[in-house]
Amino acid sequence: MMGHLRIVGDRRADRLRLIRTRTSRALVVRCHQRLRGPCTGIDTVLRSVLPEAGRRWPELVEAHRVELLYGMPELAQLIGPPPRTLADEASFKERTRFYGSGMIRCMSQGIITFLLGYADRIHADTGSALELAFEEVHAAEATTQELLALLVRRADPRLLRVVISTTADALPDELEATLAATAGTLHAPAGDPTPQAPRSAVEWAAVYVDSDGTDDDPQALRGYREADPQEVARLHDRRADSLEGTASWGVRMGAIAYHRERGSDPGGAGRTALLAAQRHAVATGFSAAVVDLGLRGRGVSDPGNHEHDHWEFTREAAAACIPIGRLAQSMELYQDLLRRFTNPKIHMMTSYAIAMLHTRFLRPRDHELALQWQHNAVAIAGILPDPAERLTFSVFHDNGLALVEMHRGNRARALDLVESCIARLDREMGDDQWVLHRSQLLYNRARLLVALGRPDEAYADYTRLVDLDPYYTDYLSERARISRDRGDFDAALADYDRAVQLAPPFPELYYNRGTARMRTGDLRGALDDFAYVLEMEPSDLDTRIARAELLLETGDLDGAETDADAGLALHPGEVQLLCLKGTVLLQREDFDQALTAFDAALERDPRYPAALINRAVVHFHRSRHGRAVADLTTALDIVGSDPDVLLNRGIAHLADGRTDLARADFDHALTLPDADIPELHRHRELCDASAGPLKSQL
């Protein structure tokens, strides 16, 4: 079986010809974002495989129901509806919980895990690999391109072979790097042009428009550009009208928004279509699409005649710039709103947004400047003429002020603000009003209670939130953290297990469950969780270190070294990984290479205790007792009076003939908690004899 493949060619017809010669029975899907937006192509694959998967392996589908339906709700026709959260039930007006690119990446990982499980079952039945060919990847939306990068990296081509078909245009960095590392490349030779009957410019324009702007025939594109603009606009209207009746959200985000924007009424029907598409992208968390749709919406909305829509396009695009790392563009869009409008509500919400940029995202953070901007938002909210708006916006912005105060270190003040917000809404509103935002306030109170050392009250709040919104799993994870701090790992694992069952595969969730499993002695379960995290995100440093340490602890030196080397390839010079590498070499008694690793770690961080302690072991084995003492003395200056380090320094003193210093270290260690009493007494008795071996510490 061949591996993954990248096919490059100028024309789709040429690429498709090569795909047919290089695959046996590949499912070929189109990914052009103008068709159905962020999930174009992925939706086609899932429509193809879900009927069989649901019929033969319903447990596989059920395990990934949330991810499969998240960006493609129309797939509910095949597998039934997803579980609902408070955010799903809230109106757009009352929506105060939004997701971003991180959530979408987790959803993509879950879809990939489903496809890998499906391919594994197909291979077990037939002995053949599932083959998927993704065409027009150069024109795919960022969400699809990211998913394909993850799929190519994670898929074993013996089970699921991926073909990426594209022009020579550069792809996003992650996808380019993955293809370079895992896929071969073939160039599609240009075929002879297919004879075409003579057509007028407008006829070719119709071909291009009916392809939803995806046809790459030069004649179609030339005809589209040369045809009468009014006639072209009518073609777009006609195509949009033909799609409206059965359009999914994907079609509305892709083709319909594209056609209405270019039709005869871009400032009316186009603006409306783009706004509806952007709102759906906002609610789902398709950050790149939100930015794209917002910038396009700004282009067709007149700030004077459509102030609200222009503001909404701009503020949502600005907010979505943040999770995709475009902070400067975000700030510029917000500042454009301040320059353009005098509407108090626009200034209020923009002040809040700029405050959040300064207190949460910009580096360095500037909480004092954030306070200034947020005070402006609070002040405007307090003088809004409508009493209902004054209440809701005052609460919203006091909650934002609480976040700034928390970042300034004023936790008690932040808690007072949040509790005041809760009390005002409870007093003025019915139980069915602004339910989502009230849950957010309760969540913020719980987090502040934890920070203030009141875990029992926070636990009660999280329990209430779990009951209120059982499918929003952040509450389970936060409650599990309190249980861990209490030492109740059974309760923590119960919450983690439930969250894993309900949530998309958040790497942090599996990492946390893995570390909890370690504490209960479930080392196999911990390794399974760590393995899944690293399959999804190989560069996750905390998980890489945790697994390497666990493998080292269980005696798997080869596995620990492999993890250390893999981690160092992704994080060159990382101190903990260098120290782990050195510790593996030390246990193999490869003292020269171990010393090299510890020296490298200490060059990066001269006060890293584990490297100092373990380098001291190397020095001891090389009979450099004075150097061992020096490293251990530095370590004690850093960690304080540690009985094991004192024991080791005493042994080094003893080997160096400094009996009094050795006895002093042993006596000091005997007064400390958790000291190895028998070992200390044994070495104290040896003060007039030979030294024993140093104990390697991590």
Report on this model:
With 698 residues, this protein is mainly alpha-helical. The protein contains 37 helices and 5 strands. The protein has a 5-stranded parallel β-sheet with strand order 2-3-4-1-5, sandwiched between helices. Helix 26 (489-502) packs antiparallel against helix 27. The radius of gyration is 31 Å and the shape is globular. The relative contact order is 0.05. The model has no long low-confidence stretch (mean pLDDT 94).
Summarize the structure.
49% of the residues are buried. The model has no long low-confidence stretch (mean pLDDT 94).
List keywords for this structure.
5 strands; five-stranded parallel β-sheet; 698 residues; 37 helices; mainly alpha
- Proportion of helical residues: 55-70%
Tally of DSSP helical segments: 37
Spatial order of the strands in the main sheet?
2-3-4-1-5
Class by alpha and beta content: mainly alpha
**Low-confidence region ranges:** none
How large, in whole angstroms, is the Cα Rg? Answer: 31 Å
Q: In what range is the share of β-strand residues?
A: under 5%
- Amino-to-carboxy terminus distance: 45 Å
> What would the principal axes of the Cα set say about the shape?
globular
> Averaged pLDDT, please?
94
- Give a count of the beta strands, DSSP E runs of length 2 or more: 5
Q: Report the sheet with the most strands, covering strand number, pairing sense and barrel closure.
A: 5 strands, parallel
